Amino acid sequence: MGSFSIWHWIVVLLIVLVLFGAGKLPQVMGDVAKGIKNFKAGLKDDSDDEADKPATPPAATTPPPPPPAAAAAPHATVVDTAPVQVTPVETEPVTAPRVDTPAKPPRDLPPKPPGA
Hints:
Elements lengths: L5 H15 L4 H28 L16 H4 L44
């Protein structure tokens, strides 16, 4: 069931020929080939870039100190940032529902015949 027979491939080929036409098929396949070549070239460029990178990472640089606030913004507005008090919300604890197995009803068995 996982493999295709020759008839499956013939049907697929016929559908492709109907959709694209016999004249357009070489052009489509050429475009696919160009795409594959560009993909391989991109992979090769990426591997070359990784080979050119140094093995050790560059040293970390420290950012420059921020300018003084008075020099940066002479007319800055100060906003009062009072602490906000958060009240907790009371919730009920979540518990799983209790699953009880139903009691089996007593079985009414006929009495055993004597001597059995």
